[in-house]
Design goal:
Layout lengths: L5 H23 L9 H14 L5 H5 L7 E5 L6 H12 L7 H15 L8 E9 L7 H6 L12 E9 L16 E7 L8 H15 L4 E6 L4 H9 L3 E2 L11 E6 L3 H11 L1
Parallel strand pairs: 4-5
Antiparallel strand pairs: 1-2, 2-3, 3-4, 5-7, 6-7
Helix pairs in contact: 4-5
Length: 270
Amino acid sequence: MRRISKSTTLLISTFIICWLAASTSFVLKPKDHRWRNDFQILLQETRQQHSSPSQSSASSAFPAPPTPEISIRSPNYGEMRFVANVIMDSFYANALLPARQLYRLAELGRLQLNFPYDRFRHRMFIALAKPVLDDDDDEIKKQTKWRSNNNNKNSNVVGFCDVDARTPNQATQFPYDPRPYISDLCVAPDFRRLGIAQMLVDSCEKFCQELGYEEAFVRVEPSNEAALRLYNKLGYKEYSHPLETPGKTILLQKNLCSPGDQVTKSLGEE
């Protein structure tokens, strides 16, 4: 009986390990992991063609695809897996396999455990993108295959935000936990600069006002300059509190009362 050499055994073992790793990553990889769908690619390519001075007459005659139609609503439990993809693309963009899959499972588990079955004081909002194609856009329809990543046909979950007005029933990582608290605001990279983040925050603020709250809070890391600019634009100001740990995050607060309401309230107190 022939004995297999150690080098041959090592080579075969390495091949099997690599094959198993590739198979595992293929199985775990979500079907809807690509946010750069055909519609968005076509949109970007067309914009480049129209902005290029050396474009051909054929490309200049090609109409630019319209901006997707955005809608905001509360998600269902099954859509948490699509929300996890948006969070991964927003907060873990540089993560590589297999760590990326572990991060995604952790985020999905957190979202599912935190899902608001009782939506009286806790609400989640998602942004859905749907391409707006006229009947005359036959050429675009032929070249576009809009991939749906949820149960709603022709729609994609492209944004998410959470707002919680419940009193924490256990200690958190922060010594001071103001309510209502907005968190996890994120938008898929290919759908940014369309006003989606502002639409999500507006929905959270409206929910807070419906509950009777006059302010809302959010925390931002000091290095996240884009988020700081967005919240400052929306009227959020830095808020100081004796229990707040300086330097770790920046606590922002916004007064949700209109100037007229503030005047009426002050007169009533007098």
